[in-house]
Amino acid sequence: MKKLTKILSIATLAISPILASAPAIAEYPERPVKFIVPWPPGDLEDIITRMIAEEMTKQTGTPASVINKPGGGGIVGALDVAQARPDGQTIGSFVADILTTHIHSGNAPYDQTTFEPVGIFLDYPFVIATKADAPYNNLEELAKYSQANDVSLGHFGYQALPTALTFKAAKQEGIRIASDSAFDENNCSTLATGDADIINTTTQLILSCLKSGEVKLLTSITQERLSIAPEVATLAEQTGITQTLWNGLFVKKGTPTEVKEKVAEIAQAALKSDRIKGLSNTTGAGIYWIGDSAAEEMIAKDFESSKELLEFMNK
Question: Which of 217, 239, 261 is the last residue of a domain?
């Protein structure tokens, strides 16, 4: 027995230097993290993603930053995440279009299995807005007005879900759109310069002219009425069209579960901040957290419904 103990002791001493020199298992994040926002800076997904990146830096001590990569209706930025390693070092902040209509239309160099959701955090306060002095206050009144007057629409492109939802509502309610144009940003100036009579956009992009009273809302494409305009009926209330717009965090498929859980934990901590609550109160945005299988179910449902919308747009 003494001989065996001696042998084990010698073996342990021999292995100890090896164990001491072996590197510890790296803890995520190993190096600076990039959050890819495939749109210009300034809108809600950009602002909230920056807050999440700040929280990651605060919690981990590893730099995390937001990179804006607009182009192709979000496809350029999404491609960065699609081509990244599945290690959580590159995270996409994606609007619903990137995972739905772009894939259906064949524009995307990725497919439905390329990304995995970390979580969905935003019900976009998308709206249809017009100048305050327009002689209509809702979609029914707009429909009547459009029968005798030309109405021009400003939107974010034909593959954007808000555009498809607006055209579907127009057809259903009898709104005659005489002309339409796509803009990189639909903001106060789009209406002020007369480039469009009505626009679909987010409250964040028209906040200043909403506050000044220069612009009013005809409807919101949201789950609930906006807290900043509770008198304005939602698109679902006015037309029965229930689909809304969301934004979430996505990683390359195959990213380790523990990495996704860490990102989710950090994101949820950021969403509880007073700054986020203030942003929600100011813009009317629905800010929440839907993760795991619930997010996958939500995406799958919207994937199917967006296919119908795209078919409608292509008729």
Answer: 239
Residue 308 lies in a domain: yes
Burial 24-59 (b: 16+ CB within 10 A, else e): eeeebbeeebbbbbbbeeebbbbbbbbbbbbbbbee
Q: Which domain holds residue 58?
A: 33-123+245-313
Contact between residue 124 and residue 272 where contact means Cβ atoms under 8 Å apart: no
Alpha-carbon dihedral 210, 214, 219, 224, rounded to 10 degrees: 20
**Residue numbers of the chain with a pLDDT score lower than 70:** 1-26
Query: Would you state the structure tokens that stand for residue 188, as one six-digit string?
Result: 């106060």
Q: Tokens 């759109």, residue? A: 177
CA distance 215 to 213: 6
- For residue 288, what pLDDT is reported? 94
Q: Is 47 helix (H, G, I), strand (E, B) or coil?
A: helix
- C-beta atoms surrounding 231 within 10 Å: 8
CA-nearest of 95, 89, 51, 119 to 265 is: 119
Give the integer Cα–Cα distance in Å for 248 and 289. Answer: 9
Dist CA 302 CA 123 (whole Å): 13
**117: which strand partners?**
250
Rounded CA-CA distance 309/128 in Å is 18
Reported as a single tens digit per residue, the pLDDT across 214-267 is: 999 999 999 999 999 999 999 999 999 998 999 999 999 999 999 999 999 999
Same domain, 163 and 214: yes
pTM over the 0.85 mark: no
Q: What SS3 class is residue 85?
A: coil
Q: Residue 159 half-sphere exposure, CB side, CA atoms within 13 Å?
A: 19
Q: Report d(CA 216, CA 19) in Å as an integer.
A: 68
Amino acid at 75: I
The helix (run of H) or strand (run of E) holding residue 265 is helix 257-271
